[in-house]
Amino acid sequence: MTPEDRSPAGPSWIKKQFNSDVPPGRRALAMTLGDLCRHLKPDFSGQSGNKRLNQSEAAGRLRSNPSSLSRFLSGKTVPGPEFIETLYKEACTDAGSERAVGISLDDVMSLRLRAVDERRCVRCADLSEQAEQLASLRNESATLRAAVTELNAAKAGLQARLAALARPAPPPVPRRRGDRRRSRNDVAAARRVAAQAEELGRGDRQDVALAMLRQTTTEVLSPVETAVVLLTLRQRHQNRLADNLIHVYGRDQGDRDVMQAALELHEQGAHGDAGALLRSAMR
C-alpha cells in the first residue's frame, strides 16, 4: 500500500488528472463524484481492517466498469442519472447519512445538468462554426459561378470578334500577293487589328491576342498590312506581341509573304524587325 493510499484523500485511483479541454462544469461534477467515492468502504468479510477499496471493486458496487468509472472521475464523460443515484446511495450508506457526505442528491444532479448543458454548448459552438464555414463556401461558390459566367460571356464575345475579323470585307477580294502599294484603308485596317490585339492582351491574355493576330495576318491581311501591324504594335509598346508575331509569321508563312513583309519593314526603318522576320523563316 502506497503512502498516497493511506492519506485522508482516499485511494489514489479517485484523484484523476484533468485534461486542458475538460470544461469547468464537467470538472466540478467529476470532483464531486470523487468526493462521493471517498466515502465508499470495502467489504471487510474475511479481510483485514486496513484494506482500501480499489477501482474495480468500486465499479462493481456502482454497476459500472473500471474504464467508465475512470472517465467519469476524469471529466471525459458525463455519467447518466442512474449511476449518480447509485453512487450517492452507496456513499450515504457507507458514510452513515446524507449529511455526512456533505452534499444533497439534488445538488449533484444539478451539477450533472450543468455539465450536460456545457457539452451541448460546445456542440452548438461547433455547429455554429461549421455553419459559418458552409456559408463562406456557398458565397465563394456563388462568386466562382459568377466569374465563370463572366468568362464565358467574354469568350463568346472574343470568338465573335475573331470570326468578324476572319471574314473579309465585302465585296470579297483575294489577297494581294504581288501588289505592295498601301492604301489608306489598308493602313487603317492594319492599325485596327493592332489596337484590338493590344486590348485583348491586357490582363494576362497575351495568348488570345496572339491567336487573333496569327489568324488575321495569315488569312485576312496581306504581307504589307502585316508589316503595318508590326510597326503599330511597336509604336504602342506591345513589344511582346510584336516579337511573338514575328516568330509565328516567319515560321508559318511562305517565303514570298515573309520577304514582302520584311521588305516593307526595312523600307519603314524597322531594320531589326525585318532581319528578325527573315531569321525566323530560316529556322
UniProtKB/TrEMBL annotation:
Keyword terms of this UniProt record: Coiled coil
Coiled coil segments of this chain: 127-154
Biased composition (Basic residues): 174-183
Biased composition annotated in UniProt, kind: Polar residues: 45-57
Annotated InterPro entries: Cro/C1-type_HTH
Entry keyword annotation includes Nucleus: no
Residue stretches spanning the membrane: none
UniProt keyword annotation of Transmembrane present: no
CDD domains registered for this protein in UniProt: HTH_XRE
UniProt region (Disordered), positions on chain: 1-21, 42-68, 167-187
Protein name per the record: Uncharacterized protein
Lineage: Bacteria, Bacillati, Actinomycetota, Actinomycetes, Kitasatosporales
